[in-house]
């Protein structure tokens, strides 16, 4: 079997575009939706006991977005193909939904809608990681911390709804009264 020769020279140039763009869009989504403990609605909620300290969320998301930017740069650097195009579509679909979560949860106060959104993001991110891994193993593995964080986010979102009956602006009836 012949080995495939890779040209990785373009990865860092693509990463220099992808990482800041993804991180800055994430910061903008959080800022525009007044996310975090500065949000009066959120500050009044009972938070789950397993929730990390508020000050950790910014650095964690910056690191996760940077890893996502590197992963997409690795895939973007591969030769054009149908599989690469599908992988990039999956990546950007889950990323757009990721950016929508803060406005839905913090801006709209839609706890259960945000939970459904997180589950959809997790499914798309899993599909993205699998597709990335098929294209370039490293790219798939770079998404593992994000996938783990999304699992925690689902639990935190659910528990926030459970601990705060009546706080959801438009309950869907998923968590309870």
Automatic annotation (TrEMBL):
<keyword id="KW-0812">Transmembrane</keyword>
<dbReference type="Pfam" id="PF03073">
    <property type="entry name" value="TspO_MBR"/>
</dbReference>
<feature type="transmembrane region" description="Helical">
    <location>
        <begin position="110"/>
        <end position="129"/>
    </location>
</feature>
<dbReference type="InterPro" id="IPR004307">
    <property type="entry name" value="TspO_MBR"/>
</dbReference>
<comment type="similarity">
    <text>Belongs to the TspO/BZRP family.</text>
</comment>
<keyword id="KW-1133">Transmembrane helix</keyword>
<dbReference type="InterPro" id="IPR038330">
    <property type="entry name" value="TspO/MBR-related_sf"/>
</dbReference>
<protein>
    <submittedName>
        <fullName>Tryptophan-rich sensory protein</fullName>
    </submittedName>
</protein>
<feature type="transmembrane region" description="Helical">
    <location>
        <begin position="53"/>
        <end position="75"/>
    </location>
</feature>
<keyword id="KW-0472">Membrane</keyword>
<feature type="transmembrane region" description="Helical">
    <location>
        <begin position="12"/>
        <end position="33"/>
    </location>
</feature>
<feature type="transmembrane region" description="Helical">
    <location>
        <begin position="141"/>
        <end position="158"/>
    </location>
</feature>
């Amino acid at each position: 079997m012949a080995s495939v020769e890779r040209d990785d020279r373009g990865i860092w140039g693509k990463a220099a575009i992808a990482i800041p763009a993804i991180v800055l869009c994430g910061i903008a989504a959080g800022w525009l939706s007044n996310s975090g403990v500065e949000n009066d609605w959120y500050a009044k909620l009972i938070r789950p006991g397993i929730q990390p300290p508020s000050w950790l969320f910014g650095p964690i998301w910056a690191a996760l977005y940077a890893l996502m930017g590197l992963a997409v740069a690795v895939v973007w650097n591969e030769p054009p193909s149908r599989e690469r195009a599908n992988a990039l579509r999956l990546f950007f679909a889950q990323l757009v939904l990721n950016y929508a979560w803060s406005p839905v949860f913090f801006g709209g106060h839609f706890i259960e809608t945000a939970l459904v959104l997180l589950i959809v993001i997790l499914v798309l991110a899993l599909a993205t990681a699998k597709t990335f891994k098929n294209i370039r193993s490293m790219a798939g593995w770079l998404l593992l911390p994000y996938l783990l964080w999304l699992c925690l986010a689902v639990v935190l979102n659910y528990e926030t709804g459970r601990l705060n009956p009546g706080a959801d602006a438009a309950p869907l009836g998923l968590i309870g009264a």
